[in-house]
Amino acid sequence: MKTEVYSWRVDAIRKADLESEARREGTSLAGLLDRITAGWLRQRRNGEEAEQARIRKRVMAAVGTIRSEDPTRSKRASELVREIIRQKHEKESVASRRAD
């Protein structure tokens, strides 16, 4: 049972087109809008699921591919990332001073 109400403003031409399409399909305007929005939501969900599947596939292709001679690398990941960022900012700072 539908209990919620939602309304929005559309221009007169769009409203007339929707009402005309509803009459052509032999349904109410509410029924037409319900079908349209359900289809749109279904499409969005399917698109998101497909995107998530693509991401999972890329991640799984990379699992286990990072090798290092450093057995403490995973424990030091934050430290290593901070160092990379510090070096990047240092290079950018030197470059901007040269540009001045």
Care to describe what's here?
The structure is a single chain. The chain is an all-alpha fold. Helices cover 71% and strands 0% of the residues. The N and C termini lie far apart (68 Å). α1 (12-25) crosses α2 (29-62). It is elongated. The chain has helices at residues 12-25, 29-62, 77-99. The model has no long low-confidence stretch (mean pLDDT 88). The protein contains three helices and no strands.
Summarize the structure.
The chain has helices at 12-25, 29-62, 77-99. By secondary structure, the protein is an all-alpha fold.
How much is the radius of gyration in Å? 28 Å
Shape: elongated
Quick one: biggest sheet? none
| Series of secondary-structure elements, N-terminal to C-terminal | HHH
N- to C-terminal distance: 68 Å
**Low-confidence spans:** none
Secondary-structure topology with pairs:
Layout: H1 12-25, H2 29-62, H3 77-99
